């Protein structure tokens, strides 16, 4: 199973190697490749897919949205986190300073903000993966709600897009966890953004039930 996602797929430092992909692997005795990457979006997901996908992959699990849905200055440049390079690291530092200056000058309110990855591009990036995956089953996992509740309207919109994709395409399945996490904010988080051991276990167990119910591991891509 190939996992594409952000920091909550990778797991925080103390959880890395024991995040929900690894927990799922133990639940159903399957090989996994965890391509979670801090601060990454579906743009990095496309690059990871190109580099890591092969015909032996039987399921692709995708969990992006935490960064994609983030509101930032409308004209901020974007520098990929993967594949990385010295030049890109410098570019991200400069971009971060640029964003801070714009916010300090009030340009966010004056000119406006956009999501880091616009919603339509977000959907298209996922579709691009699906189209190149040769009908491999894809599980789209909700982004969990944020403890900074001002972010949750955007997160909900991006999760809704995942539901729409699952309704439109038979190879796409949706794991809806947003409402579950909304009622267990204390137990499932270690901070406003990152999941706890309990949160990762919940996703792993929920994925196990979905995969077994749909008998996804019995089918070959």
Using brief descriptors, characterize the structure shown:
single chain, 46% helix, globular, alpha/beta, 9 helices, 221 residues, five-stranded parallel sheet, two-stranded antiparallel ribbon, 12% strand
Whole-angstrom Rg: 17 Å
Distance between the termini: 11 Å
Characterize the main sheet: 5 strands, parallel
The stretches of 5 or more residues where confidence is low (pLDDT under 50) are none
Strand content: 5-15%
Which range best describes the helical content: under 10%, 10-25%, 25-40%, 40-55%, 55-70% or over 70%? Answer: 40-55%
Structural class: alpha/beta
Overall geometry comes to globular
Descriptive overview:
- With 221 residues, the chain is of the alpha/beta class.
- The chain contains 9 helices and 7 strands.
- The strands form 2 sheets. The protein has a 5-stranded parallel sheet, with helices on both faces. A two-stranded antiparallel sheet has the order 4-5.
- β6, α7 and β7 form a beta-alpha-beta unit.
- α3 runs parallel beside α6 and α6 runs parallel beside α7.
- The longest helix is centred in the middle third of the chain and has 19 residues.
Task: Reconstruct the topology from this structure.
Elements: E1 2-5, H1 7-10, H2 20-28, E2 33-36, H3 42-52, E3 60-63, E4 71-73, H4 86-104, H5 107-111, E5 113-115, H6 119-132, E6 138-141, H7 152-168, E7 172-175, H8 178-182, H9 197-214
Parallel strand pairs: 1-2, 1-3, 3-6, 6-7
Antiparallel strand pairs: 4-5
């Amino acid at each position: 199973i190939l996992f594409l996602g952000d920091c909550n797929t990778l797991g925080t430092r103390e959880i890395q190697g024991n995040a929900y992909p690894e927990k799922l692997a133990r639940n159903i005795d399957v090989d996994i490749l965890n391509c979670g990457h801090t601060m990454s979006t579906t743009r990095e997901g496309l690059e990871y897919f190109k580099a890591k996908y092969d015909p032996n992959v039987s399921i692709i699990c995708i969990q992006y949205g935490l960064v994609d849905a983030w509101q930032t200055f409308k004209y901020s440049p974007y520098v990929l986190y993967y594949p990385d390079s010295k030049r890109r690291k410098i570019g991200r530092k400069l971009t971060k300073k640029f964003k801070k200056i714009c916010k300090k000058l009030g340009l966010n309110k004056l000119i406006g903000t956009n999501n880091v990855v616009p919603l339509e591009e977000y959907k298209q990036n996922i579709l691009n993966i699906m189209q190149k995956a040769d009908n491999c089953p894809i599980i789209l996992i909700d982004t969990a709600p944020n403890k900074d509740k001002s972010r949750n309207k955007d997160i909900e919109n991006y999760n809704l897009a995942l539901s729409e994709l699952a309704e439109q395409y038979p190879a796409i399945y949706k794991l809806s966890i947003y409402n579950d996490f909304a009622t267990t904010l204390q137990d499932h988080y270690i901070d406003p953004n990152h999941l706890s051991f309990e949160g990762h276990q919940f996703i792993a167990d929920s994925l196990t039930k979905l995969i077994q119910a749909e008998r996804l591991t019995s089918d070959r891509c």
